[in-house]
Design brief:
Strand order of the largest sheet: 10-11-12-9-8-5-6-7-13
CATH topology: Rossmann fold
Helix content: 10-25%
Number of strands: 13
Number of helices: 5
Structural class: alpha/beta
Shape: globular
Order of helices and strands: EEEEHEHEHEHEHEEEEE
Radius of gyration: 17 Å
Distance between the termini: 39 Å
Strand content: 25-35%
Number of domains: 1
CATH class: Alpha Beta
CATH superfamily: Vaccinia Virus protein VP39
Largest sheet: 9 strands, mixed
């Protein structure tokens, strides 16, 4: 396709239109609405082009659950643009995790500007805290996106390992297991059957082909960035049949997870 990209599988991906100096919702209920980026240089928002490529794969690639009706997790959320895009395209519920003050402020500002007050939760103590809470509640999720600072290799490894640790009943021999970092604590599995995990990372810093129970199924590269797509290995014993109850009520984000409701 002229003006498009090729994945490692040779498939063509539509190349989205660029909008100079503005970040916008690409499609769905909030299409073309402008989003606020965090102030300062501490965060690196996913570009509109890469975000559209991501959702092209999620909606057309046939790899995992559909975005519409999904339970979506946006880790290291930055401006919240990826999670908001999922909401715009019909996700049932979105969890945002971010601990940088400027980014948390941007997420709240963007949700307020869109008059979104339901169907989401914001954890302002970071991604690790959100994953622990989801695991404690045995909350099953369908789609997970993570975008740590490119240089933080440990954040990628720790997060991907925490998302899908080996089930003890299905654990392979020790020689088959990737070596883990000392001090990384496994969590209860939170991925629903067929769930997809996507990590954005620097193209020149490729991620591993597998992390305990996660197996890479696709890579998409665009400029200096890349997206690695992972699914739970069938032999891991971790696929969940039930997704659990969604959060109820509302708490101030300064105390952790803030569940909201959408207004018309």
């Amino acid at each position: 396709m002229e003006g498009g990209w090729k994945t490692h599988d040779g498939d063509s991906i539509e190349r989205p239109q660029e909008t100079k100096d503005e970040m916008r919702v690409i499609a769905g209920e909030f299409r073309s609405r402008v989003l606020q980026a965090p102030r300062g240089a501490a965060t690196r928002p996913t570009s509109d082009r890469l975000r559209q490529a991501l959702f092209n794969v999620l909606e057309l690639g046939g790899l995992g659950p559909a975005v519409r009706g999904s339970r979506f997790v946006d880790l290291y959320a930055g401006s919240g643009a990826v999670g908001i895009e999922a909401m715009s395209r019909g996700a049932q519920f979105v969890w945002f995790a971010e601990d940088a003050r400027a980014a948390v402020a941007a997420i709240r500002a963007n949700l307020a500007a869109l008059k979104v007050a339901c169907g989401y939760a914001l954890e302002d103590r970071g991604s690790a805290r959100l994953l622990r809470e989801l695991a404690a509640r045995r909350q099953g999720v369908d789609l997970v996106f993570l975008d740590p600072p490119y240089e933080l290799a440990e954040a990628y490894e720790d997060t991907l390992r925490a998302l899908a640790p080996w089930n003890e009943a299905a654990r392979p021999e020790a020689s088959d297991q990737p070596a883990g970092r000392k001090g990384v604590q496994p969590l209860a599995a939170i991925l629903s059957a067929g769930a997809l995990v996507v990590a954005e990372h620097a193209r020149k810093r490729p991620l591993a082909a597998s992390y305990p129970a996660l197996q890479r199924v696709r890579v998409l590269e665009q400029g200096d960035a890349a997206l690695s797509f992972y699914q739970v290995s069938q032999r891991s014993g971790l696929l969940k049949d039930q997704r659990g109850e969604l959060p109820a009520g509302q708490r101030d984000g300064s105390e952790g997870t803030a569940a909201g409701r959408r207004t018309d």
